[in-house]
Amino acid sequence: MFHLASSLYTQYTKREQYNVLILGLDNAGKTTFLEHLKLLYPPPGEPPRKSRKSTEANSDQSTIQALKAKRILPTVGQNTITVKFEASKESQLSTQYNNINLKFWDLGGQRSLRSMWSRYFTSCHGIIFIIDSTDTERFQECYDTLMEITHDLSWTNQENNAAEMVNVPILMLANKQDLPEAVDLVALKTGVFIRLVSELEATDSKLLPVSVLENQGLVESLEWLVTRLVYNKPNKQPQYK
Ligand SMILES: Nc1nc2c(ncn2[C@@H]2O[C@H](COP(=O)(O)OP(=O)(O)OP(=O)(O)O)[C@@H](O)[C@H]2O)c(=O)[nH]1
Ligand SMILES: [Mg+2]
Questions:
Q1: Looking at ligand 1, which atom is closest to the CA of residue 211?
Q2: Which atom from ligand 1 is nearest to the alpha carbon of 34?
Q3: pTM for the whole thing?
């Protein structure tokens, strides 16, 4: 009885925290994505940011300019941020999404660093996989890397041999859509990635076009992910902070 009361107390007084891994090949835009999130969403305990959509207000243009001026170096270790999720007015998400913090881990995408990714798998509630839509020569490598992630042995529960990957949502972002040479979503889906749908059948996944630099599709993408994290709550409980 005490445990039930204490767990209910925790659930009603603390915020839910979901851990999200940001993966993808080097130069895909992972750290740029993280930096933009920092500008759009406040850390826990701070008031809301003014605007989030590129169309919402001119102030967002200065955010984009600030981001462009920033020198982002290739990631060698990890970058971590925690933000307070706030649904946009357009999303009409219910109040159950008002109590969520998202912790992001941005890891280096260079080939030599990818073996470190699997250490984070069991602690994550969701994955964002970023694809450089202009880097056509490496689409196959993107596909293979995604397959390696989903088939990694660290997802397997050693005790009961169950696959813990099932239901961990994967959001794939076709990034750099602001560039003229970017391959669009239709071409991406019918090209190398055509087998993705059947390969990821058991997984909650989505491929969306974005420009993380120009804030195109960023808010909508995050809102899709949050709805899926909450949907998967019975399988993978959030932390309470
Ligand atoms: N035009 C354009 N450039 C982008 C976009 N996103 C990232 N970039 C550029 O792509 C380059 C690499 O971005 P990063 O964020 O460092 O890439 P990363 O995935 O973190 O790379 P690693 O840390 O090496 O794994 C930078 O020059 C960014 O400015 C985008 O949406 N549009
Ligand atoms: Mg990086």
A1: 31
A2: 15
A3: 0.91
